[in-house]
Amino acid sequence: MLVERYENLDLTHILLPPERFAPFPKAEDREAWGNVPPELREQWLKLAEQYIDYPWPAIKVEDYAGYWKSGNLANHTNAVFERRSMLGVLAVAECLEGEVSGSLSTP
C-alpha cells in the first residue's frame, strides 16, 4: 500500500507551511491579477457571466434528512458542491476585474 511505502518520507523540506500556501494572490494584489494572461482572464470572465442571473441551488433540509432514511446524500452534496463551484468562479472573476468598492481587507 502507498501508506506503507511512503510512511517514512519527510516532505517538510518540499511542502510550504500552511501560512505561506497561496494558490491565488490576494484580491488587493492588483499587480498579480493584472499579470494574468488575457486568454485566461477572458475564460474566467466568460465562465462567470453564465452565473450572473443563475438561480442558486437550494440546500434543503429534506435532502439532508433523506440521507438518514435512504443513505443517499447525493441531492444534498450536489447542491453544496454546485454552490461552492459557482462562488469560486465568481470570486476569481471579481478579483480579475478588481472593481470592488471599499476595503478588500478583512477587519
Question: What are the salient characteristics of this protein?
Answer:
52% helix, flat, mainly alpha, 107 residues
SSE layout:
Layout: H1 2-6, H2 30-34, H3 38-49, H4 61-70, H5 74-97
Helix pairs in contact: 3-5
Description:
The structure is a single chain. The chain is mainly α and about 110 residues long. It has a domain at about 25-95. The chain has 5 helices and no strands. It has helices at about 1-5, 30-35, 40-50, 60-70, 75-95. α3 (about 40-50) packs across α5. The longest helix is centred in the last third of the chain and has 24 residues, at about 75-95. The radius of gyration is 20 Å and the shape is flat. The mean pLDDT is about 85.
Using the alpha-carbon principal axes, give the shape.
flat
Over all CA atoms, what is the radius of gyration?
Answer: 20 Å
The helix/strand order is HHHHH
Largest sheet: none
The rounded distance between the terminal residues' Cα atoms is 46 Å
Low-pLDDT parts are: none
Number of helices: 5
